[in-house]
Specification:
With 381 residues, this protein is an alpha/beta fold. It is built from twelve helices and 20 strands. It binds pyridoxal-5'-phosphate.
């Protein structure tokens, strides 16, 4: 009851459909089979909560999880079973060897210095340490150069120091199926992989999962597609996972010539009915969506944002709604059937990833799983 009353009083509600998340995992797993399907849950599972997302994916059969930082591994480890592997995409921060080994996480070694620090720590312990090896096949972001990896493959001491789980690379243009660099990167990666016979290969992020099977290797690493964002033109069958509604704080009618919001950037061209909504840039709603760029929706009707987005609120023009259609205290939709993450990203001049990961911690979260809804209050996640 206490939770319910808080949903009634909360300013905004972020709905997270864990059933849809699990269905998306199945879609991706079917798509890349017989390769296995892992899950990238970095940045607190793209902002949605790594514990609940990780646990739902684990129950759907996922056994390989990827986070960016070692600090992200601990909450995830508590949420998944001991038979899951947690890979750290950033590899080994300086002096983190002991904590990484103690956590039982598997660093994705990205540079020669990371390799040599992990090997030195293994020599100190007297047994080989688990690792993935990341090859830079042409993106110039993270990973060993091909020749350095080939030299490492030939080093006989390596086997006693590194227990390699995975050989990995990352595509720069996986979301563009016709981009020639995908094949070029694959060729570089395969040349290196030939020196590591039998080692499982991992290439595909979400976009890569929708490329031909040659890009799937033995383990795919989708992230954003799990959360219902289409990673490219060939993506099919993904279900939206998030929904965002925010409350009407106040409704007013203004006369032509009246200014709205900071800087009075919007001046009403005619009489306008406005609703001030409890959603701002501190809630992850981009400030760039102010002054005519974005909108809220109510019963299929677009309500354009007018004036600048404030920290905790924004204002929409509700003149298109019948007078009695929307009242103070009711909710309007920002993400849902009328407006997708991709739509918002388009309006804000960014990508759906950025909108999703910034949704922030202040919303009440409604987690739906097995047709039951659970409320997680702001600050509790
Ligand atoms: C973030 C990331 C992924 C997941 O990417 P999506 O595009 O979200 O599927 C996979 N691999 C690496 C190395 C990453 O950094």
């Amino acid at each position: 009851m206490q939770q319910l009353s808080c949903v009634e009083t909360c300013s905004s509600r972020l709905g997270i459909d864990l059933d849809a998340l699990r269905a998306n995992y199945r879609t991706l797993a079917d798509r890349v089979a017989p390769a296995r399907c892992g899950a990238v849950v970095k940045a607190n599972a793209y902002g949605l909560g790594a514990t609940r997302v990780g646990s739902a994916l684990y129950r759907e059969g996922c056994r390989a999880f990827f986070v960016a930082q070692l600090a992200e591994a601990a909450p995830l480890m508590r949420a998944v079973g001991a038979d899951a592997t947690i890979f750290i995409l950033h590899g080994l921060d300086p002096a983190s060897e002991a904590s990484c080994a103690a956590a039982g996480a598997v660093p994705v070694l990205n540079s020669l210095s990371q390799v040599s620090r992990w090997r030195a720590y293994a020599r100190k312990l007297g047994y080989p340490l688990p690792a993935a090896l990341h090859i830079d096949s042409g993106m110039s972001r993270l990973g060993l150069a091909a020749e350095d990896a080939i030299a490492l493959a030939a080093d006989p001491a390596r086997v006693g120091e590194l227990d390699l789980h995975l050989l990995m690379t990352h595509l720069a243009c996986a979301d563009e199926p016709d981009c020639a660099t995908n094949e070029e990167q694959l060729a570089v990666f395969r040349r290196v992989a030939a020196h590591f016979p039998g080692l499982p290969l991992s290439i595909a992020n979400s976009g890569g999962a929708f490329l031909p099977a040659a890009f799937h290797g033995q383990l795919a690493r989708p992230g954003v597609a799990l959360f219902g964002v289409d990673p490219g033109p060939h993506a099919r069958g993904l279900r939206p996972v998030v929904r965002l509604d925010a409350r009407v704080l106040q409704i007013r009618t203004i006369a032509a010539g009246t200014g709205v919001g900071y800087g009075l950037d919007h001046i009403a061209p005619a009489t306008q009915r406005l609703a001030t909504i409890a959603l701002g840039y501190a809630d992850g709603w981009p400030r760039s969506l102010g002054v005519g760029a974005g909108a809220a929706w109510h019963r299929g009707i677009r309500l354009p944002i007018v004036g600048r987005v404030s920290m905790d609120s924004l204002t929409v023009d509700i003149s298109a709604l019948p007078e009695d259609e929307l009242a103070e205290g009711e909710f309007v939709q920002f993400l849902g059937p009328s407006q997708s993450l991709a739509d918002v990203a388009h309006d804000a001049g960014t990508i759906a990833y950025e909108i999703l990961t910034r949704l922030g911690a202040r919303h009440a979260r409604i987690l739906v799983e097995d047709a039951a809804a659970e409320v997680v209050l702001p600050g509790d996640i």
